Amino acid sequence: MCLTQNPNNRVPIPKPANYDPAYWELFRRYFAVATPQNLTFNELVFVWHLQNGKTDINNNGPISTDYINGAWEYPEANWTRRQEIIREHIEYTQAYFYFLRTDPAVPESLRAEVATWGLAKDEFVKTNNWPHQLYVREARRMIGAYVFIQKDRTEEIEKQDTVGLGSYNFDSHHTQRIPVGSITFDEGDLQAFYAMNPFQLPYSMLVPKPTECTNLIVPVCVSSSHVGYCSIRLEPQYMILGQSAGVAASFAIDAGKNVQDIDIPLLQRRLRKLGQYLTPGDIPS
């Protein structure tokens, strides 16, 4: 979300037509026991300040902008249902901000602070100032020739068929909310902040099993576990893997070979010539 406190460029976040005060009871109970009582907006959402008084807003913890339990259907849904899910996410977010700025259970100082925020009216103008698409971190992935898992990020980070480097941590938001008796559990949050040491991205996680398909290279929905994908699913890695996939595809076409059978050392030499770093030793000191 792109929000602003600039009154000259601020559009109020509307109350959704289907707002249900009862839905927010769990949040009320959270505020009743929250420490400190004078919570600030930046403790409920991450606020990154950008140019021209605008911000990039992201979820922060269990009582935030993530619509927990709301996205499970999305990967397998048809386009009609996907549009409904997108609308449900918008309505949840609208209701979240309406709750924060109006509900008596929210500390008065926080209500007043949230009321100073609104959508930037010169952003996403064709979609009523809301982002034009849902941010899908993770959905369906290929099970390919090699499955990249946790140890490939933390222990076995050197790969003979490396085509690039990654460096991000494990980062997953909550995936489900489960009530058990009088307690509610949010599951799935994973914030494992290792040192930002580089790890190698293997070509074999980009290609299918040769018995299933021989002319496909997948640089985004790569063959990986959920935890392994947490470190891969960022734009810099996508660009690196996309570059590698494009060069590899041209090699397969020119040589008349299956994508699994291309000359990996030749591919690596070509990528290095194009300026790509394949091992930590390639990085200038």
Walk me through this protein's architecture.
The protein is of the alpha+beta class and about 280 residues long. Helix content is about 30%, strand content about 15%. The chain has helices at about 25-35, 40-45, 80-100, 110-115, 150-155, 225-230, 235-255, 265-275; strands at about 1-5, 10, 45-50, 55-60, 120, 160-165, 170, 175-180, 185, 190, 200. The protein has a five-stranded antiparallel β-sheet with strand order 2-5-1-4-3. Strands 6-11 form a two-stranded antiparallel sheet. A hairpin with a 2-residue loop joins strand 8 and strand 9 (about 185). The radius of gyration is 23 Å and the shape is elongated. The chain starts with a strand and ends in a 12-residue tail after the last helix. The mean pLDDT is about 95.
Q: Gap between N and C termini, in Å? A: 37 Å
- In total, how many beta strands? 11
Structural class: alpha+beta
Q: Residue ranges: pLDDT <50 for 5 or more in a row?
A: none
Average pLDDT confidence is: 93
- What's the order of the H and E elements? EEHHEEHHEHEEEEEEHHH
Strand count, sense and barrel status of the largest sheet are: 5 strands, antiparallel
Helical content stands at 25-40%
Number of helices: 8
For this entry, what is the oligomeric state of its chains?
A: single chain
Q: What percentage of amino acids are in beta strands? A: 15-25%
**Tertiary shape:** elongated
**Radius of gyration from the alpha-carbon trace, in angstroms:** 23 Å
Strand order of the largest sheet: 2-5-1-4-3
